[in-house]
């Protein structure tokens, strides 16, 4: 979809790269100096745009990037030919031969994966770094923590693989400190008993995602964190101990008023007439709908900001247009900016509220802003 650059934007996301940089510095400041910062930039950097986000994170001091798969790793390679990249997801058997080509670090959870990857690396005559993933209670990737030994030994015996890291992932770090502590304990026991001769000092040992930072153990063997959400200013924990990290929002979501008009009381609004005007009203028709990422679930529930005032969504959100009540606004005109997520003057509509109206969580919202929506990058520091 190409679009003449002189056409004004009807719906866009604004990404504040300076805020991203400030967030990274704030998170870093809470961590001991030896902690490596693995910037998680999967899913197009949580919908913010991979190349721009990764470039700014690298400039701001990220040590390593984590992506979900090889396609994402390939995109990242175009921006940073020599940046270290960890692929978090399992590679398909037929993907293994591309790992040397993209020079990525691969996550392994099974003996079969180790053997296939070693063969692929041997065929390419290139040594590959791997991170051994241990399942301590997430029930997703990783070797079960009581069965680590054979996978560990397979890596040590693989001629073309080098063990560069060991890690686990928390299932409930945002709401269950006790289970998270149990996962940490299982991980340490697995390293102790399942990995004889493990040279921890030369490895990255990591467990914490954004929510994990709440309960991070400064003492243990951990020397890296994997941060996604928090660098974008999204707090995974409701009553967070992370209040010490004043991360600020990076993302905002905006559209325009396309038409303002008056309608008499009793008029039904939008498909299905699920809202009927109770009074003579003025409505504004916004230039965005679910085709842009305003969820249909926000029908008759969500709000937007126009001229710094909250305006309720009336009736169903449609593919390209959304109707809001502007009866109580003295001035509003076609062309006005409507804020779906973000600030407008003193007023703010947080991503968490937008997401609540959509019956989802903020990080799913970010992945749901469609490709019709251009991402505009603000780069200045100190704004
Ligand atoms: C997504 C992901 C992270 C980052 O989690 P956040 O909660 O966004 O900080 C870390 N580790 C793994 C394995 C992940 O899949």
| Name given to the CATH architecture of the largest domain | Alpha-Beta Barrel
Per CATH, the superfamily of the largest domain is: Alanine racemase
Coarse morphology: elongated
Q: What is the CATH topology assignment of the largest domain?
A: TIM Barrel
Average pLDDT, all residues:
94
Work out the helix count: 10
> Would you list the SSEs in sequence order as H and E?
EHEHHEHEHEHEEHEHEEEEEEEEEEEHHE
What is the CA-based Rg, rounded?
A: 24 Å
**How does the helix and strand content classify structurally?**
alpha/beta
Helical fraction: 25-40%
Uncertain residue ranges: none
User: Total domains, how many?
Assistant: 2
* Number of DSSP-assigned strands: 20
Would you write up a description of this structure?
With 383 residues, the protein is α/β, with parallel strands linked by helices. It has two domains: 31-232, Alanine racemase (TIM Barrel), CATH 3.20.20.10; 251-378, Beta Barrel (Lyase, Ornithine Decarboxylase, Chain A, domain 1). Helices cover 26% and strands 25% of the residues. It contains ten helices and 20 strands. The chain has helices at residues 17-30, 42-46, 50-60, 70-79, 98-102, 111-124, 149-157, 177-194, 351-357, 362-368; strands at 11-16, 36-40, 64-67, 85-87, 105-108, 128-135, 143-144, 161-167, 204-206, 224-227, 251-263, 268-269, 275-276, 281-286, 303-306, 309-312, 322-325, 337-344, 347-349, 375-378. Strands 1, 11, 14, 15, 16, 17, 18, 19 and 20 form a nine-stranded mixed sheet that branches. Strands 2, 3, 4, 5, 6, 7, 8, 9 and 10 form a nine-stranded parallel sheet that branches. Helix 4 (70-79) links the parallel strand 3 and strand 4. Helix 1 (17-30) packs across helix 3 (50-60) and helix 3 (50-60) crosses helix 4 (70-79). It is elongated and about 80 Å long. The mean pLDDT is 94. The structure holds pyridoxal-5'-phosphate. Pyridoxal-5'-phosphate is lined by residues 40, 42, 88, 169, 209-211, 226-230, 236.
């Amino acid at each position: 979809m190409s679009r003449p650059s002189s056409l004004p934007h009807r719906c866009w996301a604004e990404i504040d790269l300076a805020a991203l940089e400030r967030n990274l510095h704030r998170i870093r400041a809470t961590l001991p100096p030896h902690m490596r910062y693995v910037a998680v930039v999967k899913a197009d950097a949580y919908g913010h745009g991979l190349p721009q986000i990764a470039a700014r994170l690298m400039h701001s001091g990220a040590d390593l990037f984590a992506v979900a798969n090889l396609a994402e790793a390939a995109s990242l390679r175009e921006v940073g030919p020599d940046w270290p990249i960890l692929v978090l997801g399992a590679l398909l058997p037929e993907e293994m031969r591309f790992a040397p080509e993209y020079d990525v670090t691969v996550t392994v959870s099974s003996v079969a994966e180790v053997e296939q990857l070693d063969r692929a690396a041997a065929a390419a005559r290139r040594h590959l770094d791997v991170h051994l993933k241990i399942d301590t209670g997430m029930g997703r990737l990783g070797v079960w923590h009581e069965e680590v030994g054979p996978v560990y030994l397979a890596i040590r015996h693989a001629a073309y693989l080098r063990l560069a890291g060991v890690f686990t992932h928390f299932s409930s770090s945002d709401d269950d400190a006790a289970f998270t502590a149990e996962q940490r304990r299982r991980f340490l026991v697995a390293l102790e008993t399942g990995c004889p001769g493990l040279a921890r000092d030369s490895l990255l040992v990591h467990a914490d995602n954004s929510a994990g930072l709440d309960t991070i153990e400064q003492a243990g063997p951990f020397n890296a964190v994997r941060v996604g959400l928090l660098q974008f200013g999204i707090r995974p924990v409701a009553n967070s101990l992370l209040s010490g990290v004043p991360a600020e929002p990076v993302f905002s979501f905006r559209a325009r008023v396309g038409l303002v008009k008056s309608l008499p009381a009793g008029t039904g609004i939008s498909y299905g007439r699920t809202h009927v005007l109770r009074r003579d009203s003025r409505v504004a028709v916004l230039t965005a709908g679910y085709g842009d990422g305003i969820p249909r679930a926000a029908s008759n529930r969500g709000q937007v900001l126009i001229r710094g005032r909250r305006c309720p969504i009336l009736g169903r959100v449609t593919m390209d247009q959304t109707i809001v009540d502007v009866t109580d606004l003295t001035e509003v005109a076609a062309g006005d900016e409507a804020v779906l997520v973000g600030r407008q003057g003193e007023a703010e509509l947080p991503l968490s509220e937008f997401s609540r109206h959509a019956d989802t969580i903020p990080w799913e919202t970010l992945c749901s802003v469609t490709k019709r929506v251009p991402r505009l990058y603000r780069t200045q520091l100190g704004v």
